[in-house]
């Protein structure tokens, strides 16, 4: 008789916000969860709050050495990874406490700092892909592996091309467009992997109050985490999905690319 494989998850940026809520839901559903955090001490504090099923792991997704060490640790402990949740992201590189309006005002394509654009994209796009590439060998060893990447409806070209979209003015060259690039890369990955058993999903939390928007989002982090949690726990969704909260995307939760 085949023994069911223990479920092992890694959540990046899991010490706070949506990442923490996803990690919490996974631990409550019998996953062993590696709580990825740039600052290991903060990760350890979060892991204690999450309980016995959580393990802190130092992971800076912009640091190849950090990524390799995290991969090596999980490989040594379990030899596979059931679920990778790409959650870590930044919205700007300026001083803390800037209002969302100040950040958006500085990220218009006509005046956006190319240096800031490179830094934000290095985390949101290149770092996220680097983590995914590093952990693909461990995902391939799992019985039902999945990749869930936290994106944003703000990255949808279809939605932003619609003049009736109330959030259209928030589509900027730095953060917003980084999510468009992220969507494109992970749709490409879904297509590449569709002949394998690795499923790839993208999910938007909606306009959630987190540090990314100076906590000016209209939804609580608990509410904004509901759709990412649903996707992270679901094992029967078709690969290549892009979904968001029902009150924005509709009853089927599907978002347009």
Automatic annotation (TrEMBL):
* Source organism phylogeny: Bacteria, Pseudomonadati, Bacteroidota, Sphingobacteriia, Sphingobacteriales
| Pfam families assigned | adh_short
Keyword NADP belongs to the record: yes
What keywords would UniProt list here?
A: NADP, Oxidoreductase
Extract the PANTHER family matched here.
Answer: (+)-NEOMENTHOL DEHYDROGENASE, SHORT-CHAIN DEHYDROGENASE_REDUCTASE
What the entry lists under InterPro entries is as follows: NAD(P)-bd_dom_sf (IPR036291), Sc_DH/Rdtase_CS (IPR020904), SDR_fam (IPR002347)
Q: Is NADP set as a keyword in this record? A: yes
Entry protein name: SDR family NAD(P)-dependent oxidoreductase
Q: Where are the transmembrane segments?
A: none
Q: Which family does it belong to?
A: Belongs to the short-chain dehydrogenases/reductases (SDR) family.
């Amino acid at each position: 008789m085949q023994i069911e494989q223990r479920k092992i998850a890694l959540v990046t940026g899991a010490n706070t916000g949506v990442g923490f809520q996803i990690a919490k839901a996974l631990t409550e559903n019998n996953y062993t969860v590696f709580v990825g955090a740039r600052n290991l001490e903060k990760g350890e504090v979060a892991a204690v709050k999450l309980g016995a099923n959580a393990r802190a792991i130092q992971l800076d997704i912009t640091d190849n050495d950090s990524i390799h060490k995290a991969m090596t640790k999980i490989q040594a402990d379990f030899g596979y990874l059931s679920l990778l949740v790409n959650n870590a992201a930044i919205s700007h590189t300026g001083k803390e406490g800037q209002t969302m309006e100040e950040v958006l005002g500085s990220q218009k394509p006509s005046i956006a700092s190319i240096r800031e654009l490179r830094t934000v994209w290095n985390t949101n796009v290149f770092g996220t892909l680097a983590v995914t590439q590093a952990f693909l060998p461990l995902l391939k060893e799992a019985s039902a592996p999945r990749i869930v990447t936290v994106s944003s409806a703000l990255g949808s070209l279809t939605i932003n091309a619609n003049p009736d979209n109330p959030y259209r003015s928030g589509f900027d060259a730095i953060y917003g467009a980084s999510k468009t690039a992220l969507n494109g890369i992970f749709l490409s990955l879904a297509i590449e992997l569709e002949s394998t058993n690795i499923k790839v999903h993208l999910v938007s939390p909606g306009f959630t109050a987190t540090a990314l928007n100076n906590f000016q989002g209209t939804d609580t982090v608990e509410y904004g985490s509901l759709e990412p949690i649903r996707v992270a726990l679901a094992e029967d969704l078709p690969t290549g999905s892009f979904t968001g909260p029902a009150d924005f995307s509709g009853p089927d939760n599907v978002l347009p690319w």
